Amino acid sequence: MSRALERCVSIEDLHRLAKRRLPAPMFEYLRGGAEDERALRNNCEAFSRVQLIPNTMRDVSRVDTSTHVLGSDIAMPLLLGPVGYAGMFHHEREIGAAAAADKHKTFYSLATWGSSTPEEIGVASAAPKMMQLYIPADRERAYALVDRAKAAGFTALCVTVDTPVQGSREQAWRMGMPPPARMPLSSYLSILGHPQWLFNFIKNRPIAGVSLFDHPPSPQEMMEAGPAKDLSFDDITRLRERWDGPLAIKGVLSTQDARLAVEHGATAIILSNHGGRQFDAAPAPIDLLPAVVDAVGERAEIIVDGGIRRGVDVLKAIALGATACMIGRPYVYGLAAGGQAGVERALQILKDELERNMVLMGVTRIADVDGRFLYPMRGSVDQRNPDERCG
Ligand SMILES: Cc1cc2nc3c(=O)[nH]c(=O)nc-3n(C[C@H](O)[C@H](O)[C@H](O)COP(=O)(O)O)c2cc1C
Question: Which residues are recorded as binding FMN (predicted)?
């Protein structure tokens, strides 16, 4: 591991290192959120409003972070979420991230718009894997991807439903991201100012969409394969007929949608506002968690994502009723900072924090973390500078 990675002791450190390593437009595409970025900021701030009351004088000499989710045993209740076109952030792309997930024995999720194929990920990680689907107008294209993922050893499927249109990530757009938007001169200058990234990018030429297509897609093909605007719960029923493994619906926020998703065959809900990248008025998933847990009860697992930057955030989510958590930016900051080694660093930081905070709470198993630890009064204020609150 490089010295720079070794010096990173928090996700915020990896965020800063990623910022140095990436050209500004790529970094902005990774960091940013939609419109005024209220949802992005609130996702993180919401965690600081949840507090836990620790127990003392418990035997915490052995702590076990392992759990069971989406039909698999994993080493900690933290999954790597789907992030499209990871090849833009580091030449080791999704393969490096999946190999890091394998080392840490947790889920890796491959995005429909990934720059690696399900077959490559099947080889990179023997740990449980989830294929993320955007369902396009031509449903057969999605079904073909499901078949490929199954053959490549993917154990779970998730359908992302919060993207009938892409959120307006204005800051990234100004910088000409994502392609084929035109870049201003300042973006080109920033790219030239990162020769190492540029060299690796040109040498490896990662291609967005090779997860979905088994060839480099044309711009026309990419457009046609965008998420369908007429997606409905019946699509979930139809998918259920083809896929008998764990099926998660990602991007659900309302209790009604959560109930309907379960009635149509979902075995898990991924409570998510897409990391604040879509609907800027969306509440923080962690704030909605108790109501959604009430609505679906034992009928489905609930995975929450958005704003998790610390191991203790995972414990907060579990105390509020989540089965597990998912991260996007935190591990991709690691990827941008140092490829597979950087993702491993991100996972190690979060695992260490998880263990340390379990010890401090006086618990030894994830199953023992529940609502009894919650401090009922809400409303503490995050004192940090707003710009530092959500990397
Ligand atoms: C650069 C980037 C690309 C993403 N691409 C996808 C995607 O292709 N499909 C998807 O379902 N979610 C995608 N997401 C959302 C993540 O899966 C996840 O919901 C979100 O990042 C969680 O918030 P966090 O970044 O605060 O952890 C993306 C997120 C980022 C930051």
Answer: 82-84, 160, 250, 272, 305-309, 328-329
